[in-house]
Write a structure and sequence with these properties.
By secondary structure, the protein is an alpha+beta fold. The chain has two domains: 116 residues, no CATH class; 175 residues, no CATH class. The chain contains seven helices and 17 strands. The strands form three sheets. An eight-stranded antiparallel beta sheet has the order 12-11-10-7-13-14-15-16. The chain has a six-stranded antiparallel beta sheet with strand order 4-3-2-1-5-6. Strands 9-8-17 form a three-stranded antiparallel beta sheet, with no helix packed on it. Strand 3 and strand 4 form a beta hairpin. The longest helix has 20 residues. The radius of gyration is 22 Å and the shape is globular.
Length: 317
């Protein structure tokens, strides 16, 4: 009897240990073929991403971002292998499609490059402009704030968004029986590339500046900038330049929140003038949304707890 109990205990221990470490993987190239053929034929692949974490809460995430030049839409397909009840592997699929005023054909990459992905544990890989970047290379790829601000332009707003995955659109949270928008609207149709780490200055940056007309510029790695006319009024009395000395104080203040940037699923910095910045982030594991204001008339850190996971949807503003 004791031997049977011991054998059963050993078997259960082995199964738990196996379930802790084991997480099936698929070829990202094969998953690409599961996307509808019409999408693959009519759209351009602009980025692909693989993200893996092992352990009790382990997962493997595979993402594809497409741009359809005819309908002017961005679509993100996500395949995620996770552990149901922390034990049994399951795969869930999702898709989000948003209209975009930006021409993402400039970022089109060859699907053949997907064959160069190598599945690994506790790693990240990003396909961007026909080259695969791994782990820290992804962060180093991102443009820095001080690299994109030009002294010859008059800025109205500068927004930096960091995300743990390829994302697009606004973010909402379930709070009780209602769904509440919490900001992060960014600009309609802006593709956010993945970025982690404590360096807040490296992100997907969106600037609104006054040229002949108010314009939006989205800054991507390797000096790629996409432009669009801004559809709302810009108050000329609030314009400022990159040479404003107060701006450096704001940038130094933003850097202090790098620890939240590293943990957050999405982290956002909005500089409305050279001495005011709003900082917001979501940490899904802690079910919290947090925000604060630094610079002029500061607001201390505040947290809002939500009951259910966040959702993304296409912003309309």
């Amino acid at each position: 009897m004791r031997k049977g109990v011991a054998a059963l205990s050993f078997l259960l221990f082995f199964l738990l240990l196996f379930s802790y470490f084991y997480l099936p993987s698929k070829s990202i190239s094969d998953l690409y073929q599961e996307i509808p053929e019409q999408v693959r034929q009519n759209s351009q692949l602009v980025a692909a991403y693989y993200y893996s974490q092992t352990g009790f809460n382990g997962f493997r995430e595979y993402q594809f971002a497409f741009y359809n030049p005819e309908s002017k839409t961005l679509s993100i397909y996500t395949f995620e292998t996770y552990k149901f009840l922390k034990i049994w592997p399951r795969m869930k699929k999702s898709k989000i499609t948003c209209k975009t005023p930006f021409n993402y054909s400039l970022l089109a990459t060859s699907p053949e490059k997907l064959k160069d992905f190598t599945n690994c544990d506790n790693c990240r890989q990003l396909l961007y402009k026909d080259k695969i970047y791994r782990n820290e290379e992804i962060e180093n790829l991102q443009p820095r704030l001080d690299e994109l601000l030009r002294p010859d332009l008059n800025y109205w707003k500068v927004t930096g968004i960091k995300s743990q995955e390829i994302s697009i659109g606004a973010v909402s949270m379930y709070s009780g029986d209602t769904i509440r928008d919490i900001g992060f609207e960014g600009y309609p149709g802006a593709l956010i590339l993945p970025s982690q780490g404590k360096d807040v200055e490296k992100a997907t940056w969106i600037t609104i500046y006054l040229d002949d007309r108010p314009r939006v510029a989205i800054h991507y790695p390797e000096n790629v900038t996409l432009h669009s006319i801004y559809q709302q009024d810009v108050n000329s009395s609030t314009l400022w330049t990159a040479e404003n000395p107060k701006l450096q104080d704001i940038i130094r203040g933003i850097k202090e929140f790098g620890e939240y940037s590293e943990k957050a699923w999405r982290f956002k910095v909005s500089i409305w003038d050279p001495d005011t910045a709003w900082i917001e982030w979501i940490i899904p594991e802690e079910r919290t949304y947090a925000y604060l204001k630094i610079g002029k008339d500061p607001i201390p850190l505040r947290r809002i707890h939500f009951r259910r996971v966040y959702i993304t949807h296409c912003s309309i503003n």
